[in-house]
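Two entries, shown back to back:
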Amino acid sequence: MSSSHARTALIALELFVAVTAIGGGLMLAAGLEGGRFPLSWLAGTPFSDYAGPGLILATGVGGSAAVAAIALYGGSRIALEASLIAGLVLAGWITGEILLIRADNVLVSPIEALYFVVSLAAIALALRLGRSS
């Protein structure tokens, strides 16, 4: 994969994470998830409702991915570092979610697995681009 293809793929991944994390996080924070996530899933966490996790998802995960995508697209000198950080933030979020929330006794949901793979792909692409520059 050429550097330009790797950069394009990384921008696409970062945009995907940004849009889904910001949208999903804001829906969680506003209570618009339609009761899909029972409060019992938060037992053992520092949260009593989904407002806090939603805001963290939107700002931390989605915000870092948005900054990385914008930096990559604009050719900023911090683009690769921002992408690496965004990938690590997503990996940390998913790891924390897996460790803290036991939804219906499922160890890892398909969506968690998908986003963890996306985080690893973003990290790998950022590292590859860093080596080639």
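entry 2 starts here
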Amino acid sequence: MPGPGQTFAVCMSEFADFNAGIIAEFRANHGKVGGMFAGAPMIIIHHVGRSSGRAYQTPLVYLPGPDGRVFIFASKGGAPESPAWYHNLIAAGSIEVEVGDERFAVKVSEVTGPERDQAFQRQVAAMPGFGEYAEKAAGFRKIPVLALDRA
């Protein structure tokens, strides 16, 4: 029976494989992905681990905002902690993203207060699963919302 570290490594490996498949499909289909993400706007964020220095590519759903602004949500499926990519983006302040066939630089900022709440409610209306994530995370954290503005 595998130990805790081995189980985690297997899960992380499967998650990395899952993301790699989504990224390949995204690029092959000009930013469109099927399956559980069919019809959802997708983005790939390019970020660097704040501790490891390792380069990462993470596919996410996003919410289009005004003037080309993009909102992303650090839900981690409602886990008690925010995903690592959230901390990487906050530390970096700017990253590159892929939307459709285009790759470009963006400035990263955390959205708070009424603007955050409005963006999150719009995302819940578009994808009700985010409401479930918020319920799971309640008591631990409020799911952060980040705005990505073209640099």
